[in-house]
Amino acid sequence: MLETILKHRTIRKYKDTPIKPEILEKILEAGSRASTTGNMQVYSIVVTKGKELKEKLWESHFKQDMVKQAPVVLTFCADFNRFNKWCKQRNAEPGYDNFLSFYTASIDALLAAQNVAIAAEDFDLGICYLGTTTYMAEKIIDILNLPKGVVPVTTLVLGYPDENPELTDRLPLNGIIHEETYQDYSEKNLNNIYSEKEALKETLDLIEENKTENLAQIFTDKRYTKKDNVFFSNSFLKIIEKQNFMNNEI
Q: Where are the alpha helices (DSSP H) in 61-186?
């Protein structure tokens, strides 16, 4: 399993080979064994395989072709709907219509998603996380018929790879590990941490292609701009509120 984790690759091209039901079931079972807050499992996984629904999800995920290519699309949702209904049915009044509960359920969903990702790769399948899930949460809620108390937080496409990309670069461990307490970064630290990434041919090509001075400017000025971050933040907060997760009253 450690070898599987260390060889992780993001796959964006897929064969149309179907995934055997028994393999998919094992992968989803692995997801269900993930750590969870209070053993509540306040998440749900929507498994989409039908062409018509995948077409709609493809539109919502900025028309990324892997959504249509991969045989399975998994939408991981923060879900207190099930737990709330169970509580009420047992004469227990739930108090989970607040942001903390949404955050808790999101963590549960993401832990399950990562278990699924690792299990899928252990079966020689490829995966790709779709960050567009939170950007287009409102449309995904409509497509998948998600009720109040349920919010999509991430999506995985799942299938047999039709490409074999190189491992994606990662920062050295000394860039992300802090011994005992947090050690803030000096200019020298940052130069050392990012030097290898900044020297990659891929990085230099990106800088030339985007006509920026450096890699940092690609992130701030091209990929994840403040304007977009604020827009999608406000949109997502409205969705969280609409789905009954922003009650701050006792």
A: 66-69, 81-89, 99-122, 132-135, 137-144
Best CA proximity match to 234, nearest among 246, 223, 222: 246
Q: Does the pLDDT value for residue 249 go beyond 90? A: no
Q: What is d(CA 99, CA 248) in angstroms, rounded to the nearest whole number? A: 8
For residue 236, which of 131, 117, 116 has the smallest C-alpha distance? 131
pLDDT digits (tens, 9 = 90+) for 159-179: 999 999 999 999 999 999 999
d(CA 55, CA 176): 39
pLDDT of residue 250: 80
Model pTM? Answer: 0.96
> Over the stretch 34-88, which tens digit does the pLDDT of each residue have?
999 999 999 999 999 999 999 999 999 999 999 999 999 999 999 999 999 999 9
Strand 126-130 to strand 150-159: parallel, antiparallel, or no bridges (unpaired)? antiparallel
**H-assigned helices in 146-213:** 187-199, 201-210
3-state secondary structure of 113: helix
Tell me the mean pLDDT in the region 216-239: 97
Residues in contact with 9: Cβ distance below 8 Å, sequence separation at least 6, in sequence order: 126, 161, 164, 165, 166, 167, 168
* DSSP character string of 159-170: E-BS--PPPPP-
